[in-house]
Amino acid sequence: MVGEECAVLEQDKGEYYRFRIMRVYPLFSRLQHIMKYYSRLPFAFPENRLILPSWDQVRAPLLVAVSVVLVAGLEAGLVLHFRVGLSPSDSSCAEGFYRLVDAPIRRGALVAACLPSGAAQQGLARGYLAVGDCPGGAEAVLKVVMGLPGDAVEVEREWIAVNGARLPRSATVARDSAGRALAHVPWGSRAVAADEVWLFGLNDRRSWDSRYFGPVPLRELQGVVQPVLTW
Q: Does residue 220 come out as left (phi exceeding 0), alpha (psi in the -120 to 50 range) or beta?
């Protein structure tokens, strides 16, 4: 909150008054006005000068700014030199830093993938996805590959099966955590096409994955990811 203080610095009743008006700002600066008023003149002469902030005033904001720059620089360096990204909280994996690795796409692999345009737009609109550098303008998702080309994927209300083996914690829910209706793929079995995969996040029932938006083209997979640091 800004306030003003006024104090007489010196005076000569026959000649002048010299006084100070101090405008106090809460964080960075105080602007000091030194005014000299001569009794024989109808106005005062300003002698303005800027008081620099003290260390106590700037220490906390400076430390915050330096910390933000260091964290941003560290993340940028990791991304550029080690192909590392920060994963949002996702039911498929723990939150943390993950790096892309040169590894084949296998069942059970954790991968980064861009979603098809329709799914990406829905994810952005509903807040499931943040803005990112995928073609649809959304971030990549981290999901587990469970359905490979040639597999039989069966989706039912209470479970999902791949080649006849039911996946744990794979029931399909009707509404998201905000109470909005969730569309899902049609119930039943289908063969996975040669150019697509089915991605799931089965760590908890909140995962928004292929049971809702369907298969993902293989060309949209950025690669297999491994954790660098998780929490």
A: alpha
Give the three-class secondary structure for 195.
coil
Please write the tens of the pLDDT for every residue from 73-118. Answer: 776 666 665 555 655 545 677 777 888 999 999 999 999 999 999 9
52 burial via Cβ count (<10 Å: 0-12, 13-18, 19+):
exposed
**Residue 89 half-sphere exposure toward CB, CA atoms < 13 A:** 4
Those residues with Cβ within 8 angstroms of residue 231's Cβ, 6 or more apart along the chain or in another chain: 94, 95, 96
Query: Helix, strand, or coil here: 173?
Result: coil
Helix, strand, coil content of the chain in percent (nearest 5)? 20, 40, 40
pTM (predicted TM-score)? 0.68
DSSP 123-172: HHHHTSS-B-SSTTSBPPEEEEEEE-TT-EEEE-SS-EEETTEEPTT-PP
Tens of pLDDT, residue by residue over 55-83, are: 776 677 888 888 888 877 776 666 665 55
